[in-house]
Write a structure and sequence with these properties.
With 720 residues, this protein is an alpha+beta fold. The chain has 15 helices and 41 strands. It is a single-pass type I membrane protein.
């Protein structure tokens, strides 16, 4: 149903077909047009983007806060699933301030490097002044945690961890901040000159500890708010990281907070090393770009580390650090020539793709975009996958303070031109029309408010429509007056059944045809045409391969489907003749053999009822059947011989029973002893079925007849 306005009158037309769910109103514009909805009657709210702050990009640095990213704020209103794209622009300001923090490994192996660094102040400042007139340099040093197994904890060794030949040596330490950011060259030279080598035991150093403190202790280091922040790490060794602290019994994880007192990291021996992820996060959060100036032996190690830390560079340091100034210049040029844009705090179900617009653009990416130019642009595409409350996230270039704040909301409501009629005729005069759908007055329900619920509440009526899983009409229909009105399927057929549980399109296929094209699908099961069978009507009806030599079908112990025997449990194909897992009939039919052949046993009183329908028998003097002979002891201890031949069916047998049963010949030998002689007597009994009880009786009689000790022995043989 859709609605149109003619003058001041609203004409409501039926858009949904009988049985269709109201959800068909929501579709692509092309599908709605195809179904007959006019273009002017389709409500399709577009995305909107509004730039709320767009300060002009700065050209040069003039002591004020420069603007390098535009716009700075934007508001998006999106329809779920519909992407919107807007441009952002970045321009690096000429002469933008640079803060460089020189973090040096002062373990014993860096002794010759320290001597050269003490004279680098002039060259470092000269190199930075080529970039900007607003440069500052700070200095820090590190070795490792002052606990075993990293450092010798002997009292004297803690105070002097260097070799005996080293006259100047400072006490062991983890990380020391030496000089806050300064623009004065002489101050840098003086402070660095005061530094001496220290020492430790193992090769990896505590460089990540030092980098973490230099990142999070911004007020002590002196990082400026508006500056390019460079952290230069120089070392000739690898690094300890999270988990290594366990070697010293340090289990407390690094908390990423500043713990510096009197310029020393005071939690070095209490807190574990940071993980690479923790360090990368803090460097990014504080817009610090690291430069790893390392010797040849560990270049590959730090290149792998650099891959996990965005906006970082690695340079090979000479063995005595003479090339460190050139190395810093090259690394800075690489960092400043490449701009990487990414985002923070991205909400769930929101996707962002960056498409660089520059000559040396990297590929579009969902996490970041990269351009190798000073002035660049990016197209940012944002998609909200679901409806959500107003939220926001930030976009910024890595290592740059400037940010773009994106405020995002979703448009999940259609702005319909609803008729202002309280009881619309389309709703049987019992409700309003809202976006083409009836909103019923109290006491009425249904697609057109056609159902009066009377004394019942709507919940009771809806309960009657729920299937065994508690789903109303199986999710395939509408509950109207306590009964399911089923929707149509995509092909135009209807779901059916009390709870719309059936459809006629989900049957098994054969040769890509529903029910093989030889039957009709009914509620998920194929009803085959005459002459066809099988789960997909894939077989012609035939029993030829199921016929046995006696012209039965599967010996009555299975069903013939698709010209093959599907045998009952235990019976084996191809024709269900033998049962490998069934009980031995010699045992299961013994009671019937005894009552039919000799009129005795457990079934004697109801032999006809218990056995006549499953065992057909004949008494014989000699067997004629070729089947296996059964030989079992009956209820009176006599041996019975018989043969069984299974007939058609599961429990039908023909039996030949041998007339004569086995007899027992018992020879009793009793010995009675008198004081002067031993006498032995033997008595022979034949065909005595219950000889055990007789023997016990005889023993008792003999013992009472003689005063002497009596011994009775019995032996038996079988005769037929």
């Amino acid at each position: 149903m859709f609605q149109s306005k003619v003058g001041q009158w609203y004409v409501v037309k039926n858009f949904t077909k009988p049985g269709e769910q109201e959800a068909v109103r929501c579709d692509t514009q092309a599908k709605l047009l195809e179904r007959g909805c006019k273009a002017e009657e389709i409500l399709s709210p577009p995305n909107s983007d509004t730039v709320t702050k767009n300060d002009r990009l700065s050209s040069t640095f003039d002591q004020q806060e420069p603007v390098q990213l535009a716009p700075q704020e934007i508001r998006l209103e999106l329809r779920p699933g519909l992407p919107t794209t807007f441009p952002i622009h970045f321009k690096r300001v000429q002469g933008y301030p640079v803060d460089l923090y020189y973090l040096m490994d002062l373990s014993n192996s860096m002794k010759d490097d320290l001597q050269n660094v003490k004279g680098l102040g002039k060259d470092l400042f000269a190199a930075l002044k080529k970039i900007t007139q607003h440069a500052q340099i700070g200095f820090g040093a590190f070795v490792d945690k002052t606990v075993l197994p990293y450092t010798n904890t002997n009292k004297d060794k803690l105070q002097r961890p260097c070799d005996a030949a080293d006259k100047q040596c400072q006490a062991a330490f983890g990380y020391r901040h030496v000089l806050s950011m300064t623009p004065r060259e002489e101050e840098f030279k003086t402070k660095v000159t005061e530094q001496f080598i220290s020492g430790n035991l193992d090769s990896p150093e505590g460089s990540l500890d030092a980098m973490m403190q230099a990142s999070v202790c911004g007020d002590k280091i002196g990082w400026r708010n508006s500056s390019t922040r460079l952290l230069v790490l120089t070392t000739d060794a690898g690094f300890h990281m999270a988990g290594d602290g366990k070697l010293a019994g340090i289990l407390e994880p690094n908390d990423e907070h500043c713990h510096m007192e009197n310029n020393l990291y005071v939690k070095s021996s209490e807190m574990d090393y940071p993980s690479v992820g923790q360090l990368a996060s803090q460097l990014d959060k504080n817009n610090i770009q690291p430069i790893f100036a390392v010797t040849k032996n560990v270049v590959n190690v730090y290149r792998q580390l650099s891959q996990m830390i965005p906006k970082s560079e690695v340079g090979e340091l000479s063995s005595d650090s003479r090339n460190v100034v050139r190395l810093i210049e090259d690394a800075y040029n690489k960092l400043s020539s490449k701009v990487t844009v990414t985002h923070d705090n991205l909400p769930e179900n929101v996707r962002v793709v960056y498409t660089p617009r520059c000559e040396h653009a990297g590929p579009p990416g969902e996490n970041r975009g990269v351009c190798d130019q000073v002035r660049i642009s990016f197209d940012v595409t944002v998609t909200a996958d679901t409806c959500m409350k107003t939220t926001s996230f930030t976009i910024s270039p890595l290592g740059i303070k400037d940010t773009l704040t994106v405020t995002l909301s979703t448009n999940c409501e259609c702005q319909c031109m609803d008729p202002q009629v309280a009881n619309h005729t389309h709703c049987k005069g019992k409700g309003r029309v809202h976006c083409g759908i009836c909103s019923c007055s109290q006491g009425f329900v249904g697609q057109f408010c056609e159902c009066s619920i009377g004394d019942k509440d709507e919940g009771t009526l809806r309960e009657a429509c729920k299937d065994e899983n508690g789903v109303e009409c199986g999710g395939r229909g509408d509950c109207v007056c306590g009964r399911c009105e089923c929707h149509t399927t995509e092909s135009g057929n209807y779901y059916h059944g009390a709870f719309c549980q059936c459809d006629d399109e989900q049957c098994e296929k054969f040769q890509n045809k529903l029910c093989g094209g030889k039957g009709k699908c009914n509620c998920g099961t194929c009803e085959c045409n005459t002459g066809y069978e099988g789960s997909a009507c894939q077989c012609t009806v035939s029993q030829e391969a199921c016929r046995t030599i006696n012209n039965t079908v599967c010996y009555g112990r299975g069903n013939c489907k698709c010209n093959r025997c599907e045998c009952d449990e235990g019976y084996q194909p191809p024709r269900c003749q033998k049962c490998l897992g069934c009980q031995n009939p010699c045992l299961t039919k013994l009671n019937c053999i005894e009552c039919l052949g000799f009129d005795q046993g457990p079934f004697k009183k109801n032999c006809t009822e218990a056995c006549s329908k499953s065992v057909f028998h004949q008494m014989v003097d000699q067997f004629t059947l070729s089947s296996k002979q059964c030989e079992q002891k009956d209820s009176e201890g006599c041996w019975v011989k018989f043969k069984l031949d299974q007939l058609v069916g599961k429990d039908n047998y023909w039996a030949e029973i041998l007339k004569s049963r086995g007899m027992v010949e018992i020879i009793l030998t009793y010995i009675y002893i008198r004081p002067v002689a031993v006498h032995t007597c033997s008595v022979r009994y034949t065909a005595v079925p219950k000889w055990h009880s007789m023997l016990r009786k005889l023993k008792k009689e003999r013992k009472t007849s003689f005063d002497a000790e009596l011994e009775i022995r019995a032996s038996s043989t079988w005769t037929y």
